[in-house]
Amino acid sequence: MSEGTVVAIHIASASLEAMRPVESVRAVPGAGLAGDRYFDNKGTFFRDEKPRADKEVTLIEQEALDALQREYNIELLPHESRRNLMTSGVSLNHLVGREFNVGGARLKGIRLCEPCGHLERITARNLKGLVHRGGLRAQVLNEGEIRVGDPIVVHPSTAKRFSPDFLAFVKALGGPDCPGGPAHCSGPIGLRKSARPSGRVFLEQRTQGFEGNTCSSEL
User: Which among 19, 60, 176, 190 has most CB atoms closer than 10 A?
Assistant: First the structure.
């Protein structure tokens, strides 16, 4: 079932070069989008290291750019965001750790693509309005062609989810809610008790979808 659409595609052949619109692009596992700077190891943040999955493809929601203008009166055009794919109709934040098809390519969400100082400098704008909605970094799993207008199809999650009773139990212990609410407390689940230097025991619930976040409750 389609959950979104590719509204625009942009690539740049070199660092700091203006992003240019294209009607289609080929996604290649381990490399990214043919013709883009990171495909040829020429991106700003490439450091002569092994290829990194989170630099292969970047996406941003059209709705996020619309909200930036509506709420902060800041206009950021799609090519100025320096993201490869602009989407509509799909929540990219929910695709961290998920696999999805974009046209003929299969991708996997790796982590959020937060705005950075580099982007603020080259756009000469304050982009705090894009925090937590600056887009998604994704890895190419299967090679394929992506075209403007292609559907985005999200694959059903096979992750385990905590039951409402368990979440209520954790909350009763005084622990915080999971980031983004119970719907985001999904697997793979690593549930364990671990002794801390303080001698206290913590119940840890590690989740996908919010990098670096851990839902913890003291026992």
Answer: 60
Token pair 């790796």 is found at 110
pLDDT (tens digit, 9 = 90+) per residue, 165-206?
777 777 777 655 554 444 444 433 334 433 444 433 334 333
Over the range 57-94, which residues count as b (16 or more CB within 10 Å of their CB) and which as e?
bbbbbbbbbeebeeeeebebebbbbbbbbbbeebebbb
> For residue 100, is it left (φ>0), alpha (ψ between -120 and 50) or beta?
beta
Residue 115's domain spans which residues? 2-154
What CATH number is given to the structural domain containing 17? 2.40.33.20
Q: Provide, for the chain, the percentages of residues in helix, strand and coil under a 3-state DSSP scheme, each rounded to the nearest 5.
A: 20, 35, 45
The token duo for 166 is 């368990």
Q: Please name which of 127, 94, 128 lies closest in space to residue 112, comparing C-alpha atoms.
A: 94
Write down the pLDDT at residue 194.
39
Q: Are 32 and 56 in contact (CB under 8 A)?
A: yes
Same domain, 118 and 46: yes
The verdict on 54 and 90 lying in the same domain is yes
d(CA 40, CA 83): 16
CB count in 10 Å sphere of residue 42: 15
